[in-house]
Amino acid sequence: MGDHGTLLSVTPVPTQPALRTSGLCKDFRGFRAVDTVDLEVAEGSIHALVGPNGAGKTTLFNLLSGFLGVSAGRIALFGRDITGLQPEQIAHLGVARSFQITSLFENLTPIEHVELALQGMTSEGYSFWRSHRSMHKFRPRAEELVEEVGLTSMAHRPAGLLAYGQKRALEMALVSALDPRVLLLDEPTAGMGMEDIDRTIELVRRIATGRTVVFVDHNMHVVGSLADRVTVLQAGTVLAEGTYDEVRNDERVVTAYLGEADHA
Ligand SMILES: Nc1ncnc2c1ncn2[C@@H]1O[C@H](COP(=O)(O)OP(=O)(O)OP(=O)(O)O)[C@@H](O)[C@H]1O
């Protein structure tokens, strides 16, 4: 080994997973909805959480984003313990979350929504009474984000007029505006027709560039198209994990889903 001088004193930091849970549990009055889950999400990956209804996917999302407190176990974000932090603290560390249903302001346009989101990211914080001029500095970036999600033609129309798929696209622009390192997407294609689904797949791919994405989706076409890795949950525990092809051929997974179909 050559002499690297002072560089030798710098200990290389091994790459930490974007998210890691160890022994994560959540109890609701004695009912264990998330049961000893060890999850590892690699930095830069797109990771899907799937499983039959009631498997604990949403609860796990709520734990990761701090909306629910853990009953046991730990959560680490890039190696930093975030267990017990409040949602806004976790958001501040670069984790953004989309919801299945987001409340948009019916009278504000997509551009205005995105401008508000961008303003919220600055030290100025959200302020509804700020002058138009101050908001205008966010206009170019807002236009870019609105274009990225395919809403340019609706950019200046009230959000109340947007079709369902367009509202979900606007949501995507809002989470992009937060420029998160880790993005948690809760059923990004729920309730969409085929055309919107394929557009959303493309959108998630684009937004995922340089980021880590964890998403929940029931649509296996979406999971197969997007996910680098898939974790299958059942009754709060990890049933299987691997690539999409690995898990979909796993007999336990097939059985779990057939079980669900039986009860549908
Ligand atoms: N606040 C709560 N109080 C009591 N039980 C809850 C609560 N939230 C979730 N549960 C229960 O925990 C289990 C897991 O629910 P969760 O919503 O996490 O499942 P899921 O995998 O997201 O299901 P779905 O695919 O239907 O959205 C379910 O049995 C649910 O009834």
From TrEMBL:
InterPro entries to which the protein is assigned, alphabetical: AAA+_ATPase, ABC_AA/LPS_Transport, ABC_transporter-like_ATP-bd, ABC_transporter-like_CS, BCA_ABC_TP_C, P-loop_NTPase
GO terms for MF: ATP binding
Keyword flag ATP-binding: yes
UniProt KW Transferase keyword: no
Annotated keywords: ATP-binding, Nucleotide-binding, Transport
ABC transporter domain ranges (all copies): 19-260
Pfam families reported for this sequence: ABC_tran, BCA_ABC_TP_C
Domain of life where this protein originates: Bacteria
Annotated SUPFAM superfamilies: P-loop containing nucleoside triphosphate hydrolases (SSF52540)
Lineage: Bacteria, Bacillati, Actinomycetota, Actinomycetes, Propionibacteriales
Protein name, UniProt field: ABC transporter ATP-binding protein
Organism name: Nocardioides furvisabuli
